[in-house]
Amino acid sequence: MSRRLLLFAATSCLLSAAVDVHAQERRGGxxxxxVVISPEVAADQTVTFRIYAPKAEEIRxxxxxxxxxxxxxxxxxxxxxxxxxxxxxxxxxxRYHLVVDGVATVDPANPATSESNGNSWxxxxxxxxEFCDVRDVPHGALAEVxxxxxxxxxxxxxxxxTPPGYESGEGAFPVLxxxxxxxxxxxxxxxxxxAGVILDNLIADGKAKPMxxxxxxxxxxxxxxxxxxxxSFERQMRDFAQDFANxxxxxxxxxxxxxxxxxxxxxxxxxxGGAQTLDIAIANLKDYGYLGVFSSGVFGIAGGxxxxxxxxxxxxxxxxxxxxALKDDLKLVWxxxxxxxxxxxxxxxxxxxxxxxxxxxTYDETDGGHTWPIWRxxxxxxxxxxxxxx
Length: 390
Known about the structure:
Elements: H1 3-26, E1 40-41, E2 47-52, E3 59-63, E4 75-76, E5 81-86, E6 92-100, E7 103-105, E8 113-115, E9 120-126, E10 141-149, E11 154-162, E12 175-179, H2 195-204, E13 212-216, H3 233-255, E14 265-270, H4 272-283, E15 290-294, H5 313-316, H6 318-321, H7 324-327, E16 332-338, H8 344-356, E17 362-366, H9 372-382
Parallel strand pairs: 12-13, 12-14, 14-15, 15-16, 16-17
Antiparallel strand pairs: 1-2, 2-5, 3-6, 4-5, 6-7, 6-9, 8-9, 10-11, 11-13
């Protein structure tokens, strides 16, 4: 059969199906569900959420949309479509769920998602931010990269951002290893964290050097706080540090065109990732020229639930902390934490300890708490400080 006849036959089938659907509708049979648009962002930055759920009894919004109060309860309207309006919301990225009769679900009308530690969220972008909106500038590429972790005996995933022109260009680039927090995954920095978009805009504006950004998965098993054991927080922190040193960094350095001198390598992270940054970097300080710690520090240094017995962090790392030669080419140690953050005293205690051992620390206390809007701001402020001597 010729291509023309095949096309005619396929078109005839589609038309017949359409006619049949309309015939069923006239007979009171099949009725297509209504078209649902969700989320819908208005010019005043209010956001309307909708879901078609004619048999549901209760639906509410959940996520990092702020204190919604009664506005978080969806109301059923015509044709079984539930609706709620929130905001106005500040420009940025937000995660949310629609909780249908007690079951948290992603928004079926919204294809944009963001992964965290063990589940996915719907992703909302409210435009209006100069640094984390997608703009008409050259864009880099974001890849999901599988690698074999010999440390853990299995394949793992990380996200890697390469700057505009990397694929068609030549030469090597500096690299930033960017770590996530305890409730997140390797997907989080590039979705709700907007890391690739932020770097695109900074590079286009001439504020940051083109760089590769590596965003690995910081959990090595099911995450939980609790007593020591196979999947304890302390065990996973140690396992990740080994995976990073033995598998992640070597994979990047043999696969991508990255510079491998100390001054071309940066390591930063938020919350749990900030603690991992310090664990990895202090043990290998000669390898890193730039360190960034967002809303974090040495867990347990200020007391609280992370305090462990045995030698303190300073005692365990005394040889490195007091080695003046290791500080000579350390270009930046950068901390930032919100004044409402529950880890504020952890940050202050860590900064104080590092300064006591002769480190020059740049520290900024900002407004805000332990939230993604803060961490996006910190990346915007930290990235332009990197690799400027290059």
